[in-house]
Amino acid sequence: MASISPDNHGLRLVTRYAVLTLVAVIFVFPLLFMVMSSLKPDTQLLNDTSSLRAFLPVGDISLDNYSAAFERAPIGAFVLNSVLITGATVLLTLFVCSLAAFSFVFLDWSGKAVIFSILLATLIIPYETIFIPLLLMASQLPWIGGDGFEIGWLNTYRVQIIPFIADGLTIFLFVQFFRDLPRELIEASRVEGASWWLIYRRIVMPLSGPVIATAAILKFLFMYNQYLWPLMVVQDESIRPVMVGLGYFTDQLNVPWGEVMAYLTLITVPVLAFYLSLQRVFISSVASTGVKG
Amino acid sequence: MASKLTRANGAGWLMAGPGVLLMATFIILPFFLAFAFSLTNQRLASPNPTEYVGFSNYSDLLGLAVFRLEPERDDAGEVLRDDDGVIEYPRLRNFTRNNDAYPHLDGKREWFSWQSGEDRMVVLASDVVFVRALLNTFLFVIVVAPLQAACALGLALLINQKLRGISFYRALYFMPVVVSIVVVSLLWKFIYSPGDGLLNNVLGFLTFGLFQPHDWLGDPGTALGSIMAMSIWQGVGFHMVIWLSGLQTISPTLYEAAEIEGASKRQTFRYVTWPGLRNTAVLILIVITMQAFALFAQVDVMTGGGPLDSTQVLVFQAVERGYGRQDISGGSAISVILFVVVLCISLIQRYLTREKT
Q: Domains along chain A?
């Protein structure tokens, strides 16, 4: 760092930390406000916004908003649905996309180059531009399930999971990681007669911890935070995820803000805790989406 | 690289198959269907067969016309004025409703008008709300993309210092990124409350009571701006991280050289840091632009497009049509317009920021 005279150094350091802290306040305080508000009755909630009390757990603190929120909406079902949908998609994505990437990197087959470049080109398609035709498709796709043959995917779990299993970004992330693995290792195993499936399962995947974490985190965030798609395809409340469940609180004439803040806190704090415990991995995952340029 | 060892048509197809098939079905097929549906009258559920309608969905959305409205005159040819002296005009609907003499105006509505001598020039649009949505989306992108990129760069420079505990601050700045935009929107809707809302109180406190409480989302003049500010707050940490990874690719020896040469901080940034961030800058602008064009949840949760259509945007319109009115063809046409705009903008950005040789 630049040469700074000792007496100046301390002051500069304080200024730097002051600036950093001030900026942190901007990012943290709204979230702090959310958590604190969830603990207060509506009347106090509004009064507290005129002072620093808005960010402090003071006054009439209780979990009443939480129990009221649970009474108003089937929150347990919403959370369970989100966990199920997000969990299933993440697992299937990891499997399907890593397998495809494995094939693209290590195997030679006809048509590979063309197909790979088409998949890469899809990165420029925002999901928002395909949701409308996808909605029509979802209403007419066939399915063979426990009840036999049926038409239509609306109001199901599968319509919230299957369209999001394979995506260009995840395949691309795996491809990039696999390319840096030593090819000799794979070829040596082939010489010894190992099947491709065995190489994938026993050699490549065990070496892929970092990219698996990255792909899982990105997919988790995308799926858990989905809003528009479930809003359109799921009317049945028993299979709605948490984000769409918010409608229960906002469709009221007088929005019960205390309960809203309780619900928001409930569906956000677990994610934040997960993030804070793994923040390095989270942040480097997001940064890795920046390498595709 | 094609050797006997890696040659495997069957296994190759089998392993890539599920991923390729899923992407073909759920990304590539609907992408092309959007184009196809936009040329038909496809509805979500309809007893009538779907018909090809050409580009009428597009003209229903984008149709514009300028019309010179001449004042009413009496028998002597004098301009008629009302009691206040304001010129009287024939009603616009006489021309836009079932008037065979003006087929190009049929069904259009007034978007805006201005005075031209005694005449009034009226700009008519087939779909005034959609045109507003298109302009609002552009406005959103034009303001948010550079502002968010600049704020993110500022944060990245701030966080790129070698200080104890800096990763703690980085973690805090990034925090809103992992929070759902739906949650953030609802939280900020509360913060933006009129009267005694948190933002009004904070601003009042910072200005020693000078600030008058404002209805941020209820005023057409500030609603979109409020959504912009909140969107930047939520997303800026994401782009900070991308800038940061760009900053860290710049070789430390360049900074050492600049220091030996006695470069000031500003010069170091101008001649060392900024040139090294060129590719990152292109990437960030493209990423932010694409995200900004996809704006939906904020509008849906906070304003529902209002007040007075001041926060109508493209995706919201696409959803209102395709889902709300079950008009798949109209929604698809908007999706296609959105895609073409996104494509053009990213091509332009790539061109403008290309490596100059």
A: 1-62 (no CATH), 75-292 (1.10.3720.10)
